[in-house]
């Protein structure tokens, strides 16, 4: 298996917005790894993406023949065996959803698949179909990734005498991690601590939990299970069953639960997310594919925040809030439950975060990490600004 092309299924991608505004489906982090990184590890193949045209320059497909796999598929041993058994004239489906097929250099639009022999899966694979699946499936994916990453390897030792471990056999520490006066409780699931991370004094952490490379858990944090903190993040306060993709900060007190936070986000001190309605009814969440709120069927669902969005101190997010790309939320009270991309304001109303001003801020934020917001990324963000205009209803009514 030399080359794998992870494709965006158009029937799925829209349901994973706002996160797929800025990345292919398979670039989503769930568990410890991104979906693409999982496939790279389990197959040893070269990975590339087939995605939206405006993202393709940043995520280019490799030339030549390839095994095309649905980017929403989370790999497991059964699906991997089925995919490996495919011949070049076969296509693997689950119901009407294309799972995998071999394609040639001229078939990058997957148009030739219709003429192939259809093989139906006899069990339901794990597909990332909705944004809330990211936190829903996260605990199981941490367990799978933990086994994948740590198999045959030896954990670094914790030398701090004031750190307490429960079920140490379920804890793996990469080199360069610094842990002080912390409780790591892996009774309920594995705990993975990445390279060059720091866990400060007084932190209480329960597994399944993943802390990815160069991230920090601030003093006194309370981290509950099924939580992932991606690379280059700073996290404090209380976090439960949430995924933070990377390069984002929630450094202070406040509660984040059953939530997904994109890259380059910042949550001000004492930001709180409601994840349960007072009447215990199922949570409705904005669905970009229908342009309205859809019933998740979940009792617990918090915040979905797209890349480059920020919120000020003491921000309160209602149960099941969606924030798009590049928004800035602040002020008293509860803002609306759907905040479109490049919105500026809060409960008292919104205006447009004009693109030049947004870009100025985004460049400064990225530069603080010693990185550069390159021309490709700037163009992607500019296009998202244009394509999200219709959601900023104040622009059409003003």
TrEMBL record:
Coiled-coil region(s): none
* Keyword flag Electron transport: no
Q: What InterPro entries has UniProt attached to this entry?
A: Bifunctiontional_GlmU_bac-type, GlmU-like, Trimer_LpxA-like_sf
Q: Which UniProt keywords apply?
A: Acyltransferase, Transferase
Q: Name one GO molecular function term.
A: nucleotidyltransferase activity
* Record PANTHER family: NUCLEOTIDYL TRANSFERASE (PTHR43584), TRANSFERASE HEXAPEPTIDE REPEAT CONTAINING PROTEIN (PTHR43584:SF9)
User: What is the protein name given in its UniProt record?
Assistant: Glucose-1-phosphate thymidylyltransferase
């Amino acid at each position: 298996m030399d080359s794998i092309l992870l494709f965006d299924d158009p029937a799925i991608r829209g349901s994973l917005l706002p996160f797929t505004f800025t990345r292919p489906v398979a670039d989503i982090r769930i568990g410890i790894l991104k979906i693409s990184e999982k496939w790279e590890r389990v197959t040893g193949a070269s990975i590339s993406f087939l995605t939206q045209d405006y993202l393709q320059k940043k995520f280019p497909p490799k030339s030549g023949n390839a095994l095309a796999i649905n980017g929403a598929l989370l790999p497991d041993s059964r699906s991997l065996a089925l995919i490996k058994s495919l011949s070049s004239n076969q296509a693997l489906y689950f119901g009407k959803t294309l799972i995998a097929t071999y394609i040639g250099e001229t078939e990058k639009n997957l148009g030739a698949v219709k003429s192939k022999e259809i093989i139906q899966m006899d069990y339901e694979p794990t597909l990332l179909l909705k944004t809330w699946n990211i936190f829903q499936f996260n605990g199981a994916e941490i367990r799978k990734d933990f086994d994948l990453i740590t198999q045959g390897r030896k954990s670094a030792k914790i030398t701090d005498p004031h750190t307490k471990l429960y079920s140490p056999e379920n804890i793996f520490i990469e080199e360069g991690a610094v842990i002080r006066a912390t409780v790591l409780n892996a009774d309920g699931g594995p705990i993975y601590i990445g390279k060059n991370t720091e866990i400060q004094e007084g932190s209480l952490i329960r597994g399944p939990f993943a802390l990815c490379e160069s991230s920090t858990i601030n003093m006194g944090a309370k981290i509950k299970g099924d939580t992932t903190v991606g690379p280059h993040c700073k996290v404090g306060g209380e976090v439960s069953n949430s995924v933070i993709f990377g390069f984002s900060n929630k450094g202070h007190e406040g509660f984040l639960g059953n939530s997904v936070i994109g890259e380059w986000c910042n949550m001000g001190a004492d930001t709180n997310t409601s994840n349960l309605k007072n009447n215990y009814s199922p949570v409705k969440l904005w669905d970009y594919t229908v342009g309205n709120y859809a019933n998740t069927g979940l009792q617990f669902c918090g915040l979905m925040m797209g890349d480059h969005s920020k919120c000020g101190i003491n921000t309160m997010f209602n149960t099941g809030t969606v924030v798009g790309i590049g928004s800035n939320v602040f002020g008293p009270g509860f803002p609306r439950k759907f905040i479109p991309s490049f919105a500026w304001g809060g409960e008292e109303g919104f205006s447009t975060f004009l693109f030049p001003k947004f870009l100025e801020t985004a460049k400064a934020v990225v530069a603080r990490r010693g990185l550069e917001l390159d021309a490709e990324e700037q163009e992607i963000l500019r296009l998202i600004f244009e394509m999200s205009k219709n959601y900023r209803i104040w622009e059409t009514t003003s």
